[in-house]
Amino acid sequence: MRPVVRRLTACLLVLGSLLASGAANAHPHVWITATSELLYGPDGALTGVRHAWTFDDMFSSYALQGIETKTKGVFTREELAPLAQTNAESLKEYAYFTFARADGKKEKFVDPVDYYLDYNDTHLTLHFTLPLKTPMKPKQLVLEVFDASFFIDFAFAAKDPVKLVGAPASCTMTFQRPNDGTASAQKLGEQTFAASDGSNFGAMFANKITVDCP
Fold first, then answer.
1. Tens digits of per-residue pLDDT, 95-113?
2. pTM, full prediction
3. Where are the domains of the chain?
4. How far apart are CA 6 and CA 148, in angstroms?
């Protein structure tokens, strides 16, 4: 195993163990700024979701330790390719933190494609596409992005957080950010924590995308 892969794998193993102890650590340790695109085929069927996740500078710095580059401080996509692959493969255990329901029915994604990492001096951004197992034309799609343990905080970008790509003209989208600063959200969190082991605590911080296609 290459050194960079070994290091990131160790990092993700630590992440996994901390995720597993979510009830005791229900606050974020990694911050991600996200944008998403919902992808539609020529026939109007939803085919998948394309994510771009920008990690906070501290996590980015840690993940980059020891990577050899031709130019100091500059990381190309080729040099970051092993890191991108490990990220894409390791996130599978957590369902890529992406959960879809089509007309009320849970839907599944297959392994990601077209994944790569960019680096912009301080932050790593992971790009990847999650194809749906079966393309579909639901009347209503609900897509949520969150970490159930709330170890990772997903905050969508202020500008153009979500786009529909190739969607039928009749489709409309609404985007709801988590109300993590309100008293009602705090009360809900306390109730959730008291009623369970906290394993799904992060659901109250879900980013919710709803697409209606009459």
1. 999 999 999 999 999 999 9
2. 0.80
3. 3-212
4. 26
